[in-house]
Specification:
This protein is an alpha/beta fold. The protein is 39% helix and 25% strand. It is built from twelve helices and twelve strands.
Length: 290
């Protein structure tokens, strides 16, 4: 390929379909609730691979809340049939769970709830499999300042990591939630992003709970705030309703990649159409070759 071809790939923005999986089926909802069926994960993953997706993210969205392990058989089937990079998350509690996912075929492992419960799992994953394989998924949500401070004080009382909010002058804070968006943590999204990178995260997937499923565009404010303070790739997630929304988030926030679900799952746009639009708008993407 040569050095210039390699450099081009490194500089292109990634378009990444996301499979939220519940009970072995791909689902999609609004603001993390109201889930509806979108199909078989193995079949959909194969279609995205053939369509030219740059990567695939597979999240078992109820595994942590239900305190069960991720469905390794489904992960294996997807890995066997797809050749694109493959990130898997959900139900991770220990480094042994991470190891099982890598052995099942995951190229990267996305840690969310476990990272908050036991932050050392980030360092353990980075040490065993490298920073490039260590992804932290963050689910921030706008909450009232007083509510955030109550949650933060509860963390302080427990002797846990609890930095102040990044913008204390605002009436709102971006609070991290875990257990599939069910549990507030008292963690500020920007401060938590800096902490997970310090611990060894090589990539952050940032899913705005407020924008999720709304199709009104990504949350540019929180995505830009996080991208501005970390030196690792930030993947914007939540709210995509059109290729223009992808252009916005990639050109206005510093995000390196965009996670996409509904508009691909339900056939509103194809990956080829989306990449052609972005290329036309001057956004560097890896386009399909005929």
């Amino acid at each position: 390929m040569g050095i210039f071809g390699t450099l081009f790939i490194l500089l292109t923005h990634r378009i990444i379909p996301c499979l939220d999986v519940k009970a072995g089926r791909v689902v999609k909802g609004v603001n993390f609730v109201g889930l509806r069926d979108a199909g078989d994960p193995v079949q959909i993953a194969r279609q995205y691979d053939e369509a030219g997706a740059d990567e695939l993210v597979f999240l078992d969205i109820t595994a942590s809340h239900e305190k069960r392990n991720i469905m390794l058989d489904v992960v294996r089937q997807v890995a066997e049939q797809c050749f694109m990079p493959f990130t898997v998350g959900g139900g991770i509690r220990t480094i042994d769970d991470v190891t099982a996912l890598v052995q099942a075929g995951a190229e990267k492992v996305s840690i969310n709830t476990a990272a908050v419960v036991d932050p050392q799992i980030i360092s353990q994953t980075a040490q065993r499999f490298g920073r490039c394989a260590t992804v932290v998924n963050m689910d921030p949500k706008r909450v009232r300042r007083e509510t955030f401070e109550e949650h933060r004080q509860a963390r302080i009382d427990q002797g846990l990591f609890a930095p102040p909010a990044s913008n204390e002058s605002s009436d709102e804070a971006f609070e991290i939630f875990i257990h599939g968006g069910r549990t507030p943590t008292g963690l500020d999204a920007v401060a938590w992003a800096q902490e997970v990178v310090r611990l060894g995260a090589g990539e952050i997937v940032l899913t705005s709970m407020d924008a999720d499923g709304m199709k009104n565009g990504y949350d540019l404010e929180i995505t830009g705030a996080v991208a501005a303070v970390v030196q690792v790739p930030v993947v914007a997630s939540g709210g995509c309703g059109s290729p223009e929304h992808i252009r916005e988030v990639l050109t206005e926030t510093g995000a390196d990649a965009a996670l996409v679900a509904s508009i691909f799952h339900y056939g509103q746009y194809t990956i080829e159409e989306t990449k052609a639009y972005l290329d036309q708008k001057g956004v560097a993407v890896r386009c399909l070759t005929s």
